[in-house]
């Protein structure tokens, strides 16, 4: 099958009014990726070599988004929404290029899995002209019903056009289908709009192909994979299903999730075997974790690379550009942004490290802040191997702490510190014997005088 060329036509012209959103429906995200991008991924995984997106509502915004997640896709505008067959025909130019298979998909059905698409394509390879992806929803109301006779699919009837007997059929149209490339335009051009909704139904090509003596079949996909999103409640439902799939996949690949239902993955999260993720951890986009790391509870991680055997959290925030090398430690209430924490370095408590390098084996004391921003520009802090930064220090960038440099706690460091030097950046302590007691007595008698005056 891999030799057969395949164009995926993704329908995404709908307005999605039930989302109640200024943004086109299919751009709403699941696991941080627009739902239509999930559809594109599935199409590619099923071997699509060409991509045509049919857009309409919010066309400019859609084009911009498509440029990001599918730069090779062609977009076609369907000016008026006259039905699914009419929508597919908006991509006529792409279909006419002569692909072996045309895979019609919906932009609002993000959980479709590549295997279901590949199974439909396989039917074309075996000689079918149309292979429709069916499913059995718990409640079929609203879906087109698949009408089969003798193992062949003879028609798809939309709910509004169904007889009472047909409404009882549980096998429904998931909406997606594979159509032989050399038949697609001929069949689509024959579709009329003589039905309850007055729309040009893609589903009509089933009967049309049958009438021409062509082979038409149905394949079956899981309910989840055919879930269409119309509102934000369904969006959350799809998110939950996606997350459950991903958690399971991670665990089967060797990642320990202590409370899997509390861990949220992004569409591109990568985690190596023997890494342990404690409860309530959030992964934003762009996270790569090697093996044997520990991610403690309540950590928020995005755009970060974490090498093997690192220790992160609890309550750590790793932002884009955080790069933790082997055995690095970033502890509770620490934030790291655009910074490399080299091998074995420790940033253990209540610290902000931004635009910086922390050299191998360095120790950053509690409450250390890299002051990387002056309100206009960002500056770099370089901390050498084995350096020690005492607690509650402010490192005002740009600044360099040399290898083995030692910063006294409570310092404000504004000048670079050479290798192995000791730097103090704070006022010297003054201790006055007996003065504490004297001060307390003075305050007490002043308070008593005030009380008396008020009586
Ligand atoms: C469609 C199927 C139905 C199936 C159901 C599964 C048809 C005629 N019906 O019905 O059998 O059970 O999906 O969810 O195909 N679109 C356009 N332009 C249009 C019309 C639709 O781009 O002119 C897009 C929509 O944005 C949407 C998709 O096509 O992504 C499906 O359209 P929709 O109107 O939701 O079809 P259903 O009535 O749900
Ligand atoms: Ca729909």
Q: What is the CATH level 1 assignment of the largest domain?
A: Alpha Beta
How many domains, as an integer?
2
Q: Which value, in Å, is the CA radius of gyration?
A: 31 Å
Task: Provide a count of the helices.
Answer: 10
Q: Which architecture of the largest domain would the CATH scheme give at its second level?
A: Alpha-Beta Complex
Low-confidence stretches: none
| Broad structural category | alpha/beta
The geometry reads as elongated
Q: How many DSSP-defined strands?
A: 35
What proportion strand? Answer: 25-35%
**Helical percentage:** 10-25%
Q: Write out the CATH superfamily name of the largest domain.
A: Spore Coat Polysaccharide Biosynthesis Protein SpsA, Chain A
What is the rounded distance between the termini?
Answer: 98 Å
Attached small molecules:
uridine-diphosphate-N-acetylglucosamine, calcium ion
Overall pLDDT score: 97
Q: What is the fold-level CATH name, i.e. the topology of the largest domain? A: Spore Coat Polysaccharide Biosynthesis Protein SpsA, Chain A
Largest sheet: 11 strands, parallel
Summarize it.
The chain has about 450 residues and is α/β, with parallel strands linked by helices.
Describe this structure in words.
With 455 residues, the chain is of the alpha/beta class. It folds into 2 domains: 6-220, Alpha-Beta Complex (Spore Coat Polysaccharide Biosynthesis Protein SpsA, Chain A); 252-423, UDP N-Acetylglucosamine Acyltransferase, domain 1, CATH 2.160.10. The protein is 23% helix and 27% strand. The chain is built from 10 helices and 35 strands. Strands 13, 15, 16, 18, 19, 21, 22, 24, 26, 29 and 32 form an 11-stranded parallel β-sheet that branches. Strands 12-14-17-20-23-25-27-30-33-35 form a 10-stranded parallel β-sheet, with helices on one face. A 7-stranded mixed β-sheet has the order 5-4-1-6-10-7-11. α2 (59-69) links the parallel β4 (50-55) and β5. The structure holds uridine-diphosphate-N-acetylglucosamine and calcium ion. Residues 11-14, 54, 78, 81-84, 86-87, 106-108, 143-144, 156, 158, 172-175, 201-203, 228 line the site of uridine-diphosphate-N-acetylglucosamine.
């Amino acid at each position: 099958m891999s030799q057969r060329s395949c164009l995926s036509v993704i329908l995404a012209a709908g307005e999605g009014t039930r989302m109640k959103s200024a943004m086109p429906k299919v751009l709403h995200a699941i696991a941080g990726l627009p739902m239509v991008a999930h559809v594109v991924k599935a199409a590619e995984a099923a071997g699509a070599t060409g991509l045509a997106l049919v857009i309409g509502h919010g066309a400019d915004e859609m084009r911009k988004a498509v440029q990001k997640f599918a730069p090779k896709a062609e977009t076609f505008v369907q000016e008026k929404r006259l039905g699914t067959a009419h929508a597919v025909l908006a991509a006529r130019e792409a279909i006419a290029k002569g692909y072996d298979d045309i895979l019609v998909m919906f932009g609002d059905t993000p959980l479709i899995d590549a295997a279901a698409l590949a199974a439909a394509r396989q039917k074309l390879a075996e000689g079918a002209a149309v292979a429709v992806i069916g499913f059995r929803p718990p409640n079929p109301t609203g879906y087109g019903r698949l009408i089969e006779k003798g193992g062949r699919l003879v028609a798809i009837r939309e709910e509004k056009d169904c007889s009472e007997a047909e409404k009882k059929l549980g096998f429904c149209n998931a909406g997606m289908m594979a159509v032989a490339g050399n038949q697609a335009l001929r069949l689509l051009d024959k579709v009329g709009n003589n039905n309850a909704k007055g729309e040009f139904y893609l589903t009509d090509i089933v009967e049309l192909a049958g009438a021409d003596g062509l082979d038409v079949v149905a394949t079956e996909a899981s309910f989840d994979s055919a879930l269409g999103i119309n509102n934000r409640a369904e969006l959350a439902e799809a998110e939950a299903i996606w997350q459950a799939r991903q958690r399971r996949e991670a665990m089967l690949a060797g990642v320990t999730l202590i409370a899997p239902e509390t861990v949220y993955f992004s569409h591109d999260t990568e985690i190596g075997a023997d890494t342990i993720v404690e409860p309530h951890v959030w992964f934003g986009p762009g996270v790569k974790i090697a093996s044997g790391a520990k991610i403690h509870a309540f950590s928020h991680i995005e755009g970060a690379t974490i090498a093997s055997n690192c220790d992160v959290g609890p309550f750590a925030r790793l932002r884009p550009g955080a790069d933790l090398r082997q055995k690095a430690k970033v502890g509770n209430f620490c934030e790291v942004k655009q910074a490399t924490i080299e091998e074995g370095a420790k940033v253990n408590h209540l610290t902000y490290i931004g635009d910086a390098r922390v050299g191998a084996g360095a120790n950053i004391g509690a409450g250390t802040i890299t002051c990387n921003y002056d309100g206009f520009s960002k500056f770099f802090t370089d901390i050498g191997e084995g350096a020690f930064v005492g607690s509650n220090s402010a490192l005002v960038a740009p600044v360099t702490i040399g290898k083995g440099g030692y910063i006294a706690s409570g310092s404000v460091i504004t000048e670079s510190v050479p290798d192995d030097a000791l730097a103090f950046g704070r006022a010297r302590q003054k201790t006055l014997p007996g003065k504490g007691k004297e001060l307390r007595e003075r305050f007490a008698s002043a308070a008593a005088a005030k009380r008396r005056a008020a009586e």
